[in-house]
Amino acid sequence: MSSATKAFMLNWHIANRALNTPLPPQTARHRADFSADEIAGPLDERIIAAASEAMEAGQTHYVDVPGIGPLREALADYLNGACGSAFGSGNIIVTAGVQEARFLTIQKIGEMFDSIGVPEVAHPGVQKALGVRRRNVVSLPADGARGYLPTIDGIAAAVTDGCRLLYLESPSRLSGAAYSADEVAAISQIVNEHEAAVIWDQGLSVWIDGAYNSLTAHESTPTRVAALSDGWPGMGLSSWFLGAIAAPEEWMPSMQSQKQIMAICTATATQFAALEAGQIYNESHAERLAQLARQREGLLQAAAAANLEVVAGGALNIIALRAGASGEAALDKLRESGADGGDFGAPDTIRLTVSNSTATALG
Amino acid sequence: MSQKKADQGTNLLYKLIGEARGYDDVIVMGRGDPDFDTPPHIVAAAKEAMIHHHADYTPPAGLPALREAIAERVKRVNNIDVDPATEVVVTNGGQEALFLMVLATVGPGDEMIVPEPNYNTYADSLDFAGATKIEVQTWPQEDFRADPALVRAAVTDRTRALLLVSPNNPCASVISPGDMRAMLDIAIERDLMILSDEIYDLFVYDDFVHTSPASLPGGKERTLTLNALSKSYSMTGWRLGWITGPADLMARVTELKAAATGGASVISQYAGIAALTGPQEPVEMMAAAYQRRRRLVLDALDEMGMKYGLPQGGQFVFADIAFTGLDSAEVAQRMLTEQHVLAYPGSAFSKDRKDYLRMTFLQPEDKLIEGLERMKVAMQGIVADGS
Fold this sequence. Notes:
- The complex is a heterodimer of chains A (363) and B (387).
- With 363 residues, chain A is α/β, with parallel strands linked by helices.
- Chain A has 12 helices and 13 strands.
- Chain A has 2 domains: 22-43 and 284-362, Alpha-Beta Complex (Aspartate Aminotransferase, domain 1), CATH 3.90.1150.10; 45-279, Type I PLP-dependent aspartate aminotransferase-like (Major domain) (Aspartate Aminotransferase, domain 2, 3-Layer(aba) Sandwich).
- Chain B has helices spanning 8-20, 40-52, 64-78, 93-105, 120-129, 148-154, 177-189, 247-260, 266-277, 281-304, 328-339, 365-386, and strands spanning 27-28, 88-91, 111-116, 132-137, 159-165, 193-197, 223-228, 241-244, 307-308, 316-320, 341-342, 344-345, 356-360.
- Chain B has 2 domains: 8-32 and 281-386, Aspartate Aminotransferase, domain 1 (Alpha-Beta Complex), CATH 3.90.1150; 40-277, 3-Layer(aba) Sandwich (Aspartate Aminotransferase, domain 2), CATH 3.40.640.10.
């Protein structure tokens, strides 16, 4: 068939580089794949039991668009406990994974502003979400020495120049680096001075060993920040696609309406599984962190031996590497098994999931 | 900063759903959520998947085994040949499929022809894409037939696509094989894409026949076809649907899917494999039940003297309530508040259908009978107040 209409559609899509940005997988594709955010662990029997019980009780139907009430409450409690925020269940939308959270916030909060400031280096899902319906994008320069986090000066310049919506990751989805308390305070001050708003991806914050500084905890900003989270990372639910948005109430209606338009609700069994995961999360999280810290230490040594430069990080679940003085060959070897930093905006970098077997890829 | 006004039709329905939840004795004849629970063998497969496959990698297009099951299904039921590797994308229910189909085919300034009334979310998705909905009206005296001649007359230089929902939601019409061929001929002649929503294809009544445009000669290469497990297997909460279409367009759909949500729950996908490859008796049982309930509802509406288009398929009746003299939103509100019966106002589906109510027959027969009795009382009250 020769169809000018179809050719027109295809050409538009093919030329859309942002939309065509490859995404790293949600979970490892095979045993030697270290490109996901985390290595999925076993599923606790209590999670299986809770989801099974719900399904057998007839929880196989539509549920509320923003999520089942108890899960929204649990997510609010979890975020408040971990990040020092003050969200209620009415501030929460349960999403079908963190990518839906990115999409909803970028598209719907983005409608309220003329432009959006996006880090030069960020998760490729950000570019993909922007590619669906183009917005005016202001690039926030990244600091390679600070794990590719946008510089505070760059953020200030963008906001001063009129960009009133920022998309920020802390920790960085590429390096795991997170903003310090002082830096978060500086961002908060910039945001308030200019009546700006922020979409704040704090999904990897659970992997920070020690205090995490969330913009949502700043008293002066809670009405200006929407936070994105993965649902209880490390609990074996990454292939179930569970994420969340926590946002000021006035931003909720348009995002809820869009969630209804594009999915009606998040899968019911997933929500009941997540509810149980939240209840048992703290039992094992400290142990998970300790294990990751040990594995990461081994990886740091292997990276040094391979002449690879470790990008400044913070989150224990990932490690980002550059070639360094003589590590080109070693970095090339990792391209098959790691996430390509080029998809994030940093072509000379590879991201690896931290696990027992990741050192094999380096060796 | 300014907040864009959320869609009125969608929000109206959710307002009613929210209020209905507050009544213990409410009878829901509004939402398209089957009263049957998901068949046990599907639930059992999901439990099995939690044990053995909870961390399987799921590509944005869906698990290969599920795509193969979908390809087999669309061949068996719809007579469409698709390559599971390149021509199937798994979605978070029919709703996401609908959204992605619209985004894949139209953009700012484009037009899509939509026989009206229609499912309200299509208007929302077109609005999101920046495209314009060109309405072609259908009427109850013709059982809401979409007339190809009217469709042809509506095509302009900006028209990119034609939406066909058969069986239709909310008016339950089925496009006949002859009309479907005529629609496809228009699409070929005017170089339009077809978006075919076939989510109710297993529920067609009497002697009516479901036809997939992609199954017709010249149809597949210009048609995106949507379906889902929600209605046919009573799996609304699992959020599992799919789009099939030509490989070049489906490659774009896959990118859009990855951008919007990334993937679908692995557990839902294994449940979906069980649904499509397992015993089909539950679907036949549900179809038989809907056939009986449809008759029951139509008899009650006849008794009330209400006009409607004959539901040829689907799970709805779209009835004319002009005799009440009130806007359908007000009628629906009074039915809910006074009699605790939830039906959907026609105005939520089309601005021109304020004289209609959409009623589902997704309740057990005893509840349906009671709901219809309560509806009769409400209608009598409304008419008495107006006289």
